[in-house]
Amino acid sequence: xxxxxxxxxxxxxxxxxxxxxxxxxxxxxxxxxLCIAYTVEFLQLINVIEILNLEQHTIxxxxxxxxxxxxxxxxxxxxxLTIVLIEKINTFVAF
Length: 95
Prior knowledge:
The protein is mostly helical.
C-alpha cells in the first residue's frame, strides 16, 4: 500500500511540476506525465539497469526502480485520473 501510494503521488507531483512552467493544456501535461511514468515502468520491465550495467549506481536504481509491477501501472493511472478530475472540477468552478 505505501509503495503504491507513493507511485500515485509521484504522478501528481510531476504533473504540477511540469504545469508550473509549461504553457500547454492541462490534459497534454497530464498525458505527458502518464507517458513518463509508464516509460519508467517499461524500463523496469526490460531491466534497463542491468542492460546499461548500472547495478552499482544507487541513485539510478532509486530514480528508475528495479522491479516492474502492474500495481504501479494502476497507481499511475489512478493519479492521472485524479488529475483529470481535478482539472474538470476547476474548469467547472471557474465559470
